[in-house]
Amino acid sequence: MAAAPPSYCFVAFPPRAKDGLVVFGKNSARPRDEVQEVVYFSAADHEQESKVECTYISIDQVPRTHAIMISRPAWLWGAEMGANEHGVCIANEAINTREPAAEIEALLGMDLVRYCHAWAPKESFSHKTRN
Q1: Which residue from 62, 60, 66, 61 is spatially nearest to 44, judged by alpha carbons?
Q2: Which parts of the chain fold into alpha helices (H)?
Q3: 59 located within any domain
Q4: CA 91 – CA 83 distance, rounded (Å)
Q5: InterPro entries from the entry (predicted)?
Q6: pLDDT for res 127
Q7: Alpha carbons 86 and 108: distance in angstroms, whole number
Q8: For residue 129, is it within any domain?
Q9: Rounded distance, CA 93 to CA 79, Å?
Q10: Domain count of the chain?
């Protein structure tokens, strides 16, 4: 299998970014003819024990999702990158490995990126640092 082309994220903090802002960005290594959507989803409360349909599988829905703006390939549920109403930014990066992929349907890395809309800043830190 050929290695994925590189994709890069960047963050600029003050004083490099003007007006006290933080700038987050990412290029995409997706095929150039693949449709990319920029989509906004409002915050929402969800029924207890409800499910969310991801790209290939369903998972338990969290009680509350925060508003999010994401960039995603039109054909999948997940996201290339996004930010939620609390300023939590996250992006997908390709990881090349020598281990073969499992032959089962599972969450994609881009599904995990979109799932960040459920996190507030304190929650996102604990999710990213948990073993």
Answers
A1: 66
A2: 109-115, 121-129
A3: yes
A4: 9
A5: Peptidase_C69
A6: 47
A7: 24
A8: no
A9: 11
A10: 1
Q: Give the per-residue pLDDT at 37.
A: 95
Separation of alpha carbons 39 and 36, rounded Å: 10
**Cβ–Cβ < 8 Å for 70, 79:** yes
Please report, in tens digits, the pLDDT of each residue of the chain (131 residues total).
456 567 788 899 999 999 999 899 888 888 889 999 999 999 999 999 999 999 999 999 988 899 999 999 999 999 999 999 988 888 888 777 788 878 889 888 899 888 876 666 665 545 444 44
Count of all residues that appear for the chain in the document: 131
- Out of 9, 54, 89, 116, which one is annotated catalytic? 9
Q: Known catalytic residue: 54?
A: no
49 located within any domain: yes
Phi, psi of 129 (to 5 degrees): -105, -5
How many angstroms separate the CA atoms of 77 and 111, rounded? 6
Measure the CA–CA gap between 9 and 24, rounded to whole angstroms.
7
Which residue has 């549920």 as its token pair? 77
Host domain of residue 67: 34-119
Which region, left, alpha or beta, applies to residue 21 given φ > 0 means left and ψ of -120 to 50 means alpha? beta
Contact 114, 79 (CB under 8 A): yes
